[in-house]
From TrEMBL:
<dbReference type="Pfam" id="PF01926">
    <property type="entry name" value="MMR_HSR1"/>
</dbReference>
<dbReference type="InterPro" id="IPR025662">
    <property type="entry name" value="Sigma_54_int_dom_ATP-bd_1"/>
</dbReference>
<dbReference type="GO" id="GO:0005525">
    <property type="term" value="F:GTP binding"/>
</dbReference>
<dbReference type="InterPro" id="IPR027417">
    <property type="entry name" value="P-loop_NTPase"/>
</dbReference>
<feature type="domain" description="G">
    <location>
        <begin position="132"/>
        <end position="229"/>
    </location>
</feature>
<dbReference type="InterPro" id="IPR006073">
    <property type="entry name" value="GTP-bd"/>
</dbReference>
<protein>
    <recommendedName>
        <fullName>G domain-containing protein</fullName>
    </recommendedName>
</protein>
Length: 343
């Protein structure tokens, strides 16, 4: 519920966090996962624990109230533990102190939602890297997307080969493991796939993807990004229906080449985007723009982490098996995803 509220206005700046806690129940803090020693440093100094229900004759000595655990986790955090005695004066003292605490980095609603989603019922914190498959026609920008993310994340120049025109350079399925810039304990596994509508039959490209999926049958797929070049009139498939389907978890139609000034103005591209959305029946919330920037790429990846799908590679491979035969499989592809992921 909190995550859902945060992502309604994802770019809103969060200036502080107040965690309200009954002083007589310190032992329950060890059950709050984001207050564990390895997590608390991420929020200090922009977060405060506000204690309530103090006995009238008690003296404010937080160091005497903290047990061994989570006391150790909060040992250097005591200056951010403040009492609230249910008076207006007390409330404004807390707010005033919070205003003077400056977080080390700007915290947006999206970043907070991303962090909290790790500890939800379907959280990914202890289940390995976030795995996202990139699909799309040849030249749609899959390899460019991965190159942008990877080069900025690890400071290297290693990147997928980017094809020119309609000559596909991604011949086989390739994996790229990338550290999350917000938390180096987390990783994202991006899967680059051969492009469709190129010189190689779509059925052969789809077979390669299926064979890769079957190599890790129990591994989870958390998201699928279908990239489409906004400067191209080529359609993904006009038979994709029905319209007004709910937003799928972890699946986004990502439009690319927004920085290409030769093939149309910004206004023309925005008009094409609306037409593409209407043609495919996608809700606006299911579409994202890759602006050929590090920030726009990670925004998309963060959105997948916040609302991930949870299916196995084997299950997805078996579903794709039905599409290997016909050469016009692409017209059914997103319909297949819609049925498989339950949106």
């Amino acid at each position: 519920m909190i995550v859902d509220w945060l992502i309604r206005e994802p770019d809103t700046t969060i200036d502080g966090i107040l965690y309200m806690h009954n002083i007589t129940q310190w032992h329950l803090l060890k059950k709050v996962k984001f207050l564990r020693p390895e997590h608390i440093c991420q929020w200090a100094p922009g977060a405060c624990i506000v204690t309530t229900n103090w006995p009238p004759d008690d003296t404010w000595k937080p160091e005497e109230k903290l047990p061994a655990y989570p006391g150790e986790a909060l040992k250097e955090f005591t200056s951010n533990i403040m009492p609230f005695d249910f008076t207006t004066t007390s409330a404004w003292e807390i707010i005033s102190k919070l205003k003077h605490l400056k977080a080390p980095t700007v915290l947006t609603a999206r970043k907070l939602a991303k962090y909290l989603s790790k500890f939800s019922a379907n959280g990914l914190h202890d289940s390995g890297p976030l795995t996202i498959i990139l699909l799309g026609q040849t030249g749609s920008g899959k390899s460019s997307f991965i190159r942008t993310v990877k080069n900025m994340a690890d400071g290297t120049q290693e990147h997928p080969i980017v094809g020119k025109d309609l000559s596909p350079e991604t011949i086989d399925v390739n994996e790229f493991m990338i550290k999350d810039p917000d938390d180096d304990r987390d990783s994202v596994r991006l899967v680059d796939t051969p492009g469709f509508n190129g010189n190689v039959k779509d059925s052969e490209q789809l077979r390669k993807i299926r064979e890769w999926l079957k190599k890790g049958p129990t591994s989870k797929i958390h998201g699928i990004l279908y990239l489409h070049e906004i400067t191209q009139i080529r359609e993904i498939g006009s038979s994709v229906r029905p319209k007004d389907i709910p937003q799928p978890p972890g699946i986004f139609l990502v439009t690319t080449k927004w920085d290409d000034e030769i093939n149309g103005s910004r206004e023309e591209k925005e008009a094409r985007e609306i037409g593409l959305q209407e043609n495919l029946g996608f809700k606006k919330g299911s579409m994202r723009r890759f602006e050929n920037t590090y920030e726009s790429a990670w925004t998309i990846l963060d959105d997948v982490r916040i609302s991930p799908a949870t299916v196995t590679q084997y299950d997805l491979a078996m579903k794709m098996k039905k599409l290997v035969g016909p050469e016009n499989w692409s017209s059914q592809f997103i319909e297949m995803l819609a049925g498989f992921f339950g949106f």
